[in-house]
Each structure stands twice: as C-alpha cells, then as structure tokens.
Write a structure and sequence with these properties.
107 residues; mainly alpha; two-stranded antiparallel ribbon; 5 helices; globular
Length: 107
C-alpha cells in the first residue's frame, strides 16, 4: 500500500480524496483522460477545495506504478464482485457501461 497523506486517505482498503467519498481512482481516470484540475473540481465539488484536489493529483503523479497497480486491483475487485453478486440485467448493463467508459478513459 502507498502511504496516505493529508490529501489522500485509505478506508476499507481503498484510496479516497481526504475527507471525502470520492475515490482516488475517479480522480486518476479523469486526470489521465486530460481533464484539468478545474474541470475535475467542477464535476466533483464535494472534494472541498482545488488545493485538496491538486494534492491528490500530486499523490497520483508521485506514485505512477502504484496507482496503475491499484487501478488494476480495483478492476479485479469489480470482476470478483460481479461474479459473486448477481445484479438485475438492467443494473448490470448500467454498471458495465460505466466501467467500460472509465476503462476506455484510462487506456
């Protein structure tokens, strides 16, 4: 695990922007997709401040290999969840579409 700091915290084995419910994976996907910090903050104002978002982005940039491994592990966790939790077809389709979009952004 990567060390947490004032901008990034670990809860239940997942990384979040400090003091929020926003997953670090969301910020990583958005940033790697070319969105500016201002655009990301506009989309996720519950982050609280642009300074906090910049701190989270700095964390992402300082740990590129670890972040990539974390994102891959999150993808694996999702696949395990899907296997062990049958979702109604319409809900499964909605989640798959969202995961595909996030995965597409990352590559």
């Amino acid at each position: 695990m990567m060390p947490a700091n004032q901008y990034v915290e670990i809860r239940n084995g997942c990384y979040h922007v400090g003091g929020t419910r926003i997953g670090l994976d969301i910020v990583a996907y958005e940033f790697h997709d070319g969105r500016s910090p201002e655009e990301i903050f506009e989309a996720y104002p519950s982050i609280g401040s642009l300074a906090k978002l910049y701190g989270a982005i700095t964390f992402i940039l300082e740990h590129p290999k670890e972040i990539d491994a974390y994102l891959n592990a999150q993808d694996e966790r999702w696949e395990e969840f899907k296997t062990s939790n049958a979702l109604p077809p319409e809900l499964a389709e909605h989640f798959e579409r969202a995961r595909h979009e996030l995965s597409f952004r990352r590559h």
